[in-house]
């Protein structure tokens, strides 16, 4: 379900299909008309992720495609493509804090919603993703 204006739906649908999400249920222009309360995303920045990634109680998940992951990723990250995330929930720990990221934030936002919907409680979204990580020269070289 998307929250967007009618004019944005075609573009958003195409963008979602590019990352493997092609079963959109519909859209609303104003969620207030549905009578539901929106949840907020637990966003973290580069400084915060640096303090968390080396901890044993944290799982870092890269939601980009395999080729993007192979080209470079944050050290210690596991690769689970966002388009296949619902089929691979068994790869995500329910006992650890899960930090997700992608290239620039869009796929991580979708991944965050999917994980929360499936009952994951401790998810953090590194919304700056690889764009921000590379900008700060913290790239793990391809190997």
Automatic annotation (TrEMBL):
SUPFAM superfamilies: Rhodanese/Cell cycle control phosphatase (SSF52821). It comes from the Bacteria. Pfam families: Rhodanese (PF00581). Signal peptide: none annotated. Keywords: Hydrolase. PROSITE patterns: RHODANESE_3. GO terms for molecular function: hydrolase activity. InterPro entries: GlpE_sulfurtransferase (IPR050229), Rhodanese-like_dom (IPR001763), Rhodanese-like_dom_sf (IPR036873). Residues 54-135 form the Rhodanese domain. This is Hydroxyacylglutathione hydrolase.
């Amino acid at each position: 379900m998307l929250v967007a204006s009618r004019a944005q739906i075609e573009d958003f649908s195409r963008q979602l299909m590019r990352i493997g999400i092609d079963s959109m249920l519909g859209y609303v222009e104003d969620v207030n008309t549905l009578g539901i309360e929106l949840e907020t995303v637990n966003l973290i920045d580069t400084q915060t992720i640096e303090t968390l990634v080396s901890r044993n109680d944290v799982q870092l998940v890269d939601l980009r495609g395999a080729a993007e992951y192979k080209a470079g990723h944050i050290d210690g990250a596991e690769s689970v493509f966002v388009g296949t995330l619902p089929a691979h929930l068994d790869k995500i720990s329910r006992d650890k804090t899960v930090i997700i990221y992608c290239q620039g934030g869009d796929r991580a936002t979708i991944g965050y919603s999917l994980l929360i919907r499936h009952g994951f409680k401790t998810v953090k979204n590194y919304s700056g993703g690889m764009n921000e990580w590379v900008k700060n020269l913290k790239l793990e070289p391809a190997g």
